[in-house]
Amino acid sequence: MALSGFQQKLQSVAGKISSNRYLKAISDGLMSALPALIIGAFSTLLSGMQFEAYQNFITSTGIKEILELPAQYTTNMIAVYAVFFIAYRFAGSFDKDGAPAGLIALMSFFVLTPTGLLGENDAIALPFQFLGAQGLFVAIIVGLISSRLYVFIVDKGFTIKMPDGVPPTVAKTFTGLVPGILIVVLFTIVSFLFRMTEFVSMHQFVYSFIQTPMQNLGGGFWSLIAMTLVIHTLWLLGIHGMLVILPIYLSIWMPLGVENLDAIAAGQELPNIVNTAFAQVFMLLGGSGATLGLAIIMAFMAKSKRYKTLGRISLPGTIFGINEPLIFGLPIVLNPYLAIPFVVAPLVAVIIPYFLMASGIIGKLAGAHLPLGTPAFFNAILQGGVVILIVQVLMIIVTGLIYYPFFRVIDKQALKEEEAA
Amino acid sequence: MKNILLVCAAGMSTSMLVNKMEKAAGAKEEEIKIAATSGGDIKKYIKDADVLLLGPQVSYLKDDYAKQYGGSDGIPVEVINSIDYGTMNGEKVLDWALDLIK
C-alpha cells in the first residue's frame, strides 16, 4: 500500500513534468529539428570516415567538400531550426498559430546574434559560431520567451483586426504583426544592452555562464549515473522515464554530441564521452534497462513456455530499441525479481565503456543523434566502427549475465506452474 | 465506422499493438479504424477518435487527457492493461476498446 501511494504521487509529478508547456515545447521543438541534425550527422560521418584510401579519394576528387555541405547547413545551424520549432510548438500548445510565433522567435534570435565582416569588401557576414551547438541555449531561451510573449499579446487582443470580407489568410498575416514588432523591438534593446557589456552579445554571455557550466555538469560521469538511475527507477514504477526527462536529456546531451561531430569535421580530437549517442549505443541497448541480452536469453534459453514465447515476440523489437513488451509483459514494472538487474544492467553498460573511453583504450563516439529505432549493432558501427561494435556485443553479454540469475528464478517458477497445470 | 486511437511515448510500441489489433479487426463485420500516435501529435487524430487508449508507460497522462478529451460530452479515455500490452494481445484489447465505445 505504501508503494502504491508513493507510486501515485510520482505518477502525478511525472505527469506534471511531462505536461509542463515549457518543458514540452523544448523537447517537441528539438524533436522537430532532429531530421536536420540526422541529415547533418550522416554528412559528417560520410566525409569523416577514417580510411586513408577513401579520404585520399574524396579529397582529391573534391567530393569531400560536397559531402560536408549538408552538415554546414544542418548541424552547424541547429540553433536556427530549434528556435523556430520551440516557439512554434509552444504557441501550438496554446492553440495559437505556430508559424508567426516561430518567425518572430527566429527574427529575435538573429537580432541577438553578432555579425562580422568578411573579405576585402567588408561584406557583412553572419558567423556560424552561435548558429550551431553553441547557440542552442539561447535558441531555447529566446524560443520560449518570445513565444510566451506572442501568446500573451495575442490573448490581450493587441492585434490588427481586419474588417469582415478580408480573406482569412490575409488577416492571419496581420495577426503576427503587432506582437512581432513589440517582441523584436524588445530583443533589439536586449541585444543593444549586451553590446555595452564585456560580453558583446547575449550569445557569449549565455554560452559562458549557463551553457558551458551546465554541459560540464551534465556531461560528466556522475550525471551519466544520475540520468541512468532516474530513467530506470521511474520505469520500474511504470512511468516512461525517458519521456519525463527528455527535455534535459535533449538540451544537454544533444549539443555535446554535435560538438563531437564538429570536431570530426574539423579533424580535431573528440571532446565528449557522454552524449545522446552514448546513451543510444550503451544505456538503451535493447531499450531502457539494456534488455537486449535478456531478450536473447529468454528467446533461446528459457525453459518455461510463457517466457520463451514472450522472448521470441519481443526480440526483434528489442534490437530496434523498443522493449515495452518486455517491460509490461514479463513484467519488469513493479517486479521485485527484476528490479535489481533492470537498474544495474544499464549502469554497468554505461560505466564500462565510459572508463574505456576516459582511459583512452577505445575512442569516443562520433556523437550522431540517430533516429529512434536505429538498430543495435548498426548504431555502434556508425558511431565508432568495429571497436565500438565489439564493446557493444560485450555489453550485451555482460548485461545478459547480470539478468540471467534473476531471470532463472522467475523462469523456474513459471515452469513449475506450467507443469502443475 | 469506429475509430480507435492509441497513444504512447513515440507511437512506436503502440503501433506494434495496432498491427495485432488490425488483424483481429479484419475478422469483424463492422469497419474499424485503429491509429497510433505520440502524445505530441494527438491533436491531429483526436477529432475522429471514438475512444482514446493510453499505453501503460504513459498512464500518468490519463488525468490530463481525460480532462481535455473525456468528460460527459467527450470520449472514453482509458489505460491499456499492462499485461495485454506487453504480450501484444491485440484481440483482447480490441474487444475491450469496442466495449468502451458502446
From TrEMBL, chain A:
The keyword Cell membrane applies. One of its GO terms (biological process) is carbohydrate derivative transport. One of its GO terms (molecular function) is protein-N(PI)-phosphohistidine-sugar phosphotransferase activity. One of its GO terms (cellular component) is plasma membrane. The keyword Cell membrane applies. The chain crosses the membrane at residues 30-51, 71-91, 98-118, 130-153, 174-194, 214-235, 242-258, 278-302, 337-356, 376-406. It is found in: Cell membrane. The phosphoenolpyruvate-dependent sugar phosphotransferase system (PTS), a major carbohydrate active -transport system, catalyzes the phosphorylation of incoming sugar substrates concomitant with their translocation across the cell membrane. This is Permease IIC component.
TrEMBL record, chain B:
It comes from the Bacteria. InterPro entries: PTS_EIIB-like_sf (IPR036095), PTS_EIIB_2/3 (IPR003501), PTS_EIIB_3 (IPR013012), PTS_sugar-specific_EIIB (IPR051819). GO terms for biological process: phosphoenolpyruvate-dependent sugar phosphotransferase system. Residues 1-102 form the PTS EIIB type-3 domain. The keyword Mitochondrion does not apply. Keywords: Kinase, Phosphoprotein, Phosphotransferase system, Sugar transport, Transferase, Transport. It holds the Pfam family PTS_IIB. The modification Phosphocysteine is found at residue 8. PANTHER family: PTS SYSTEM N,N'-DIACETYLCHITOBIOSE-SPECIFIC EIIB COMPONENT. This is PTS sugar transporter subunit IIB. It comes from Natronobacillus azotifigens. The lineage of its organism: Bacteria, Bacillati, Bacillota, Bacilli, Bacillales.
